[in-house]
C-alpha cells in the first residue's frame, strides 16, 4: 500500500509517497518524479520503508513562484523537511542523476540525516577536465530552449550527454512531461550541473558512487568516476545505463540492497 503525503514548505507544496516497511530509504531524482521510481520502490518495499517524491516544481510538488529556480541546496532542504515530517532522524538515500546531486548537497548541509548516500551518476560536470566546454554546452541548451523550444533543446541535451538520438524516441509526451521538461531547462539544469561537491563533507560520511553497466559512453559516467576518485572509493556498477532503475528495477534493487 502506498500512502501519499502533502508537506507545506515556506515556498512550496511538496508531494511524497511512502510504501513498505523496514529501515527508511529515501529515493530521489531531479527532474524525475515519484512515478519514475515506483517500480524500484515496489521492488524494495518488502525490506525498506521507501519514500519517493516529486521534486519542487515537478509534477505534484507545486511552487508558490513558478519562476523560482531549483537548486541542489533547496532540494536537499526539502528532503530534510520530509524526514522531519516523518519524525525520522536519519535515512539511507538513493539519488539518481540530478537527485544524486541533491543527495550530495544533503550530506553537506545535513550530514547527520544521511546514513548512507548512494549517488547514481550525478552530472557534476565541474569535476571534468572539459568543465568549461560542458558549461558552455549547458548554456547553449538553455538558450536553445528559450529560442527554439523544448524539442530542439532536448536534442542537444541528448547528444551532449552521449545518448544515441533514437533513444529519445518514445510514446507521445503527456502535458505533465512537457511541463516538467520545460521547467528542467528553464529552472533546474544550470543549477544542478554547476554544483560543486563538498568533498571533505562527503568523505566524513558514507557515500557510494554508482555507475550504469551500459553507461560508458555517457558524460555522467565520466562525472561519476571523477567523483569516486576524489572520494577515494571504487564506483559500484548497477544494471543498465543512466535510467537503469526504470528498465531493470528488480536487478537494480538487488544491487542497491547489497550496497546498503
Automatic annotation (TrEMBL):
The UniProt transmembrane annotation reads: none
Does Phosphoprotein show up as a keyword for this record? no
Report keywords, A-Z: Hydrolase
Mind listing the GO molecular function terms for this protein?
Answer: N-formylglutamate deformylase activity; triacylglycerol lipase activity
UniProt-listed GO biological process terms: glycerolipid catabolic process
| Alphabetical list of PANTHER family matching this protein | AB HYDROLASE-1 DOMAIN-CONTAINING PROTEIN, HYDROLASE, ALPHA/BETA FOLD FAMILY PROTEIN
Q: Name the chain's protein.
A: N-formylglutamate deformylase
Amino acid at each position: 500500500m502506498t500512502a501519499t503525503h502533502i508537506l507545506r514548505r515556506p515556498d512550496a507544496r511538496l508531494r511524497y509517497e511512502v510504501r513498505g516497511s523496514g529501515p527508511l530509504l529515501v529515493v530521489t531524482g531531479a527532474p524525475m518524479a515519484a512515478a519514475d521510481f515506483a517500480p524500484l520502490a515496489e521492488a524494495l518495499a518488502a525490506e525498506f520503508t521507501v519514500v519517493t517524491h516529486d521534486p519542487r516544481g515537478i509534477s505534484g510538488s507545486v511552487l508558490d513562484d513558478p519562476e523560482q529556480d531549483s537548486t541542489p541546496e533547496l532540494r536537499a532542504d526539502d528532503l530534510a523537511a520530509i524526514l522531519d515530517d516523518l519524525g525520522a532522524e536519519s535515512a539511507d538515500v538513493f539519488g539518481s542523476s540530478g537527485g544524486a546531486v541533491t543527495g550530495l548537497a544533503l550530506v553537506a548541509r545535513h550530514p547527520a540525516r544521511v546514513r548512507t548516500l548512494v549517488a547514481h551518476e550525478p552530472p557534476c560536470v565541474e569535476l571534468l577536465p572539459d568543465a568549461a566546454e560542458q558549461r558552455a554546452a549547458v548554456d547553449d541548451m538553455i538558450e536553445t530552449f528559450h529560442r527554439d523550444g523544448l524539442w530542439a533543446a532536448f536534442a542537444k541535451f541528448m547528444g551532449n550527454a552521449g545518448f544515441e538520438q533514437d533513444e529519445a524516441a518514445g510514446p507521445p509526451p503527456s502535458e505533465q512531461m512537457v511541463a516538467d521538461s520545460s521547467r528542467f531547462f528553464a529552472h533546474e539544469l544550470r543549477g544542478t550541473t554547476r554544483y560543486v561537491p563538498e568533498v571533505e563533507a562527503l568523505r566524513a560520511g558514507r557515500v557510494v558512487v554508482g555507475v550504469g553497466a551500459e553507461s560508458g559512453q555517457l558524460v555522467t559516467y565520466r562525472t561519476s568516476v571523477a567523483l569516486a576518485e576524489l572520494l577515494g572509493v571504487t564506483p559500484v556498477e548497477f544494471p543498465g545505463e543512466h535510467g537503469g532503475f526504470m528498465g531493470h528495477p528488480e536487478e537494480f534493487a538487488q544491487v542497491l540492497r547489497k550496497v546498503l
